Amino acid sequence: MASSSDMGSADFESLSSTSDVELLKRAWRNEKAAPEILPYEGDLVERAKGQIELVEENIEAYVENGIDPLVVSLYQMDLDRTQFLLRSYLRVRLLKIEKFMFHSLKSEEAESRLSEQEIVFARRCADDLAKHFEESVLRKLPENYQSVLKQSLISEVDDMVPEPHLDTFVACRSKSHFTLNLYEEGESTQTEEMYRGDLYFIRYKIVKGAIESGKMDLI
Predict the structure, then answer these.
(1) Mean pLDDT for the stretch of residues 55-74
(2) Domain ranges, ordered by start, for the chain
(3) Beta bridge partners of 174
(4) Residue 196 and residue 162 in contact, taking contact as beta carbons nearer than 8 Å
């Protein structure tokens, strides 16, 4: 049987002290604040799942070996917090997929932001919703108005598909010093110096690239 000192050795590290937990917190916070679905953090999610399994095994071993209950409870708090972050991150994404399911499936770029499981979920939701509309409403309308995606068959775009509002203003914090173009391509070349730690309230589409590259965080 391992002693208390052995069980408390470097083979087990508190989840709260790992960088992956901070990265998961950042991914969750950004996903909650972004008006669109952000690229899926697949590697981070898998690492977090692995850490959770490891900590669960170690907590069980701690209990079996009579480690101080207070110590066990502290590790359990770390574990609960990480599980909450992971579940909340995935839940926020599912809510966005339900809202923007047709938009998320209509282009390779949009679909590439989803995990394989999320793509399956989005397709199932889209199929079920389309079937429901067709059976309850669309088949009763004139032929030109029986599309799930368009107001009428003469529409040139899918004008019935909800899309994220990228012009939404968001609060964000700069993580480094860099230069940001304040306008979309072709509008203006005016730039602004972003300084580490400073807070900004700005259109999401302007900082979209900086968010995805890790230069800025949404808050």
Answers:
(1) 87
(2) 4-99, 100-162, 169-218
(3) 216
(4) no
Tokens of 25: 């917190």
Q: Which fold has domain 169-218?
A: Ribosomal Protein L9; domain 1 (3.40.5)
The H or E element containing residue 208 is helix 204-213
Q: How confident is the model at residue 153 (pLDDT cuts 50, 70, 90)?
A: confident
| CA 103/CA 23 separation, integer angstroms | 27
Task: Check: CB of residue 149 under 8 Å from CB of residue 177.
Answer: no
Q: Which among 192, 194, 202 has a CA at the least distance from the CA of 167?
A: 202
Is 138 within 8 Å of 148 (Cβ atoms)? yes
Q: CA-CA distance, 147 to 156, in Å (whole number)? A: 12
Q: How far, in whole angstroms, is CA 105 from its chain's centroid?
A: 17
61 within 8 A of 78, measured Cβ to Cβ: no
Residue with the two structure tokens 């072709």: 186
Q: What is the pLDDT of residue 48?
A: 93
Structural fold of domain 4-99? Methane Monooxygenase Hydroxylase; Chain G, domain 1 (1.20.58)
**Type of residue found at 129:** L
> What letter represents residue 140's amino acid?
K
Q: Residue 2 has what pLDDT?
A: 41
Nearest to 129 by CA among 113, 110, 149: 149
- DSSP structure string for 37-72: PPPP-HHHHHHHHHHHHHHHHHHHHHHHTT--HHHH
103, β-bridge pairs: none
How far apart are the C-alpha atoms of 54 and 49, rounded to whole Å? Answer: 9
Task: State the pTM of this model.
Answer: 0.81
